[in-house]
Amino acid sequence: MAAPRYSAPVLWVRGTSPVLKSLFTLDSKPFCSTAAASRPLSAQQLAEKLRAQKREQKTKKQPVPTTPVQRRVQELVRFTQQLQRVHPNVLAKALSRGILHQDKDLVVINKPYGLPVHGGPGVQLCISEVLPILAKMFHGHKAEPLHLCHRLDKETTGVMVLAWEKEVAHQVQELFRTRQVEKKYWAVTVRVPVPSAGVVDIPIIEKEVQGQQQHHKMTLCPSYRMDNGKMVKVRTSRNAQIAVTQYQVLSSTVSSALVELHPVTGIKHQLRVHLSFGLDCPVLGDHKYSDWNRLAPQAFTLAFLACTLE
């Protein structure tokens, strides 16, 4: 699930790509004016050669999944990649096939992985963009767009509630705001939470991470700290937000766990922060919160990989 380590600029400069190797080979040929020397490729010939190499790389056979779980994962990966490149009409049709509930007030869909709810920098397609199309599929061309009742992170999949009327959407949003909606999440974690069930009640605040990759992250802002073996109350920042998460381990291996999470509050990235920084068990595939100081692909220990491959 986690992406491999990558540093594209370094790899390209070193010429480890087959395409760049061929380019470096062309550039490094010594000049020769004899008739026997091969002529340099023209721009058109070079472009054809690069396209042929790309086609060859695409046609290379991928590892064949051997178990039902591997086949299902491969299907989900392929489906996610396709959704990010399709026409909005195609996305709306895919969402309509995953309707979980529908009545005169609400439509409940199954949000796919990797699909953002709102637009933004670098976002080509999102759920909010296709709500007018989805409404027309159900009620004809004169239908008013559906309305979002809440949001889910791009990497989160599961139940998402939409409303036909703006007033109904506001009512559902108020239910979420006043915590009258019970929300449960399942997450696979790296390492196993100890204890196996409990409550994480630690405020959360957004801070800027200094370093080569300056960025912002949510992090813990505890109300207490240890001082010479004694617990001392500290002054909490006014920007800190109360965050409470109930959790329970449903199943586990030596180095990973399936955890059920119940967010009592609804702070940005609350579950990811409480798991990673509160319980030292980041979500599998969560590259942002697996390390505080840098933005990099999640790294696994040999023990974790060995356990996963078994």
UniProtKB/TrEMBL annotation:
GO terms for cellular component: mitochondrion. Residues 105-276 form the Pseudouridine synthase RsuA/RluA-like domain. SUPFAM superfamilies: Pseudouridine synthase. GO terms for biological process: pseudouridine synthesis; rRNA processing; tRNA processing. Transmembrane segments: none annotated. InterPro entries: PsdUridine_synth_cat_dom_sf, PsdUridine_synth_RluA-like_CS, PsdUridine_synth_RsuA/RluA, RluA_PseudoU_synthase. PROSITE patterns: PSI_RLU (PS01129). It is found in: Mitochondrion. It catalyses: a uridine in tRNA = a pseudouridine in tRNA; a uridine in mRNA = a pseudouridine in mRNA; uridine in 5S rRNA = pseudouridine in 5S rRNA. One of its GO terms (molecular function) is pseudouridine synthase activity. Belongs to the pseudouridine synthase RluA family. Catalyzes uridine to pseudouridine isomerization (pseudouridylation) of different mitochondrial RNA substrates. Acts on position 1397 in 16S mitochondrial ribosomal RNA (16S mt-rRNA). This modification is required for the assembly of 16S mt-rRNA into a functional mitochondrial ribosome. As a component of a functional protein-RNA module, consisting of RCC1L, NGRN, RPUSD3, RPUSD4, TRUB2, FASTKD2 and 16S mt-rRNA, controls 16S mt-rRNA abundance and is required for intra-mitochondrial translation. Acts on position 39 in mitochondrial tRNA(Phe). PANTHER family: MITOCHONDRIAL RNA PSEUDOURIDINE SYNTHASE, PSEUDOURIDYLATE SYNTHASE RPUSD4, MITOCHONDRIAL. This is Pseudouridylate synthase RPUSD4, mitochondrial. The gene is Rpusd4.
